[in-house]
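I would like you to help me understand the sequence and structure tokens below and explain how sequence relates to structure.
___
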Amino acid sequence: MPIPIILGLMGAVSWVVTMSVAGAFWKSIVEADPSYAAQLYTPPFDQVFYRLGPVNSWVLFRSHAPVAVMGRVKALRVVVVVNICLAAGFVGSLLYQMAR
């Protein structure tokens, strides 16, 4: 099986995991700080029509999270970084395959 296909499948699974983790942490983050949650989570309309992820990465990595949910925010950061790395690997492997 070619590497781009494997990385593409892994990226799809990673996206599903990102959606699941973000959904699982949503309630506790909203209860801890509703204003932070409103900034952190992307509205469903934007997710569908602009193909954005469930979490606003700028807020996730640049804003200070409430102390009550810091562990969950760190877990979200790890999931998003893994997703970005898989996407970069997928694009890199496609470019490598095209250059061959």
Observations:
- The mean pLDDT is 85.
- The first helix runs from residue 3 to 32.
- Residues 18 and 61 are 15 Å apart (CA to CA).
